[in-house]
Amino acid sequence: MKSENVKKSRVLGLVLSVFAVTPLFGQSVNPAKLRINGVIGLDSTYTQVIKLLGKPRKETKPVTSECTGDREKSVEYDGLSFYFADGPGPSKKTFLAMSFDLTSPKYTVSGVKIGDSEAVVKSKFGPRFTADAGTATGDKTWRYEISERNGGPGGTTVTFRKGKVVAIGSGYLLC
Predict the structure, then answer these.
(1) To 10 degrees, the CA torsion angle through 132, 137, 139, 141?
(2) DSSP letters for 109-157
(3) Which residues pair with 64 in a beta bridge?
(4) pLDDT tens for residues 52-84?
(5) How far apart are the first and last CA of the chain?
(6) pTM
(7) What is the pLDDT of residues 82-135, one digit of tens each?
(8) Where are the domains of the chain?
(9) Which residues pair with 104 in a beta bridge?
(10) What is the Cα–Cα distance from 85 to 99, expressed in whole angstroms?
(11) What letter does residue 35 receive in the DSSP assignment?
């Protein structure tokens, strides 16, 4: 009987250890797949963004990028902006979101919003990031890389002030 209890407690200890260690090695979310309000993000079309968010507060006219030679434009909402570039294909009539920057708590990015704690970000985006503490501002940034395998290169940066999210930016490296 005592031997059976010892076995049960060892099994229980092993199971608890696995659950305790699993988050440390958990898979990070693919930063290229992050979604604002669960719908739009990188690679979303200009039309999809306007359909979800409505008319932007500010919008630039398409211009030719000095970097890529493609057409580019940007739109701004209160606390959210997008940079678009020509989509693939010969017609080049579709603009795709190449980056976004968010500073308003009225939007979520795959479950994370302005004001959330570091623990919330780590639970939603994962533990695989590069951390940097801004000495001049006191802000801390976590950068999640978008690998070429996942549509990059690029990355998502989460900025913290006093342990709370103050900005989320995500984008592809274009030049």
Answers:
(1) -40
(2) ETTEETT-BHHHHHHHH-S--EEEE-TTT--EEEEEEE-GGGT-SEEEE
(3) 71
(4) 999 999 999 999 988 888 899 999 999 999 999
(5) 69
(6) 0.79
(7) 999 987 666 667 899 999 999 999 999 999 999 999 999 999 999 999 999 876
(8) 2-172
(9) none
(10) 9
(11) -
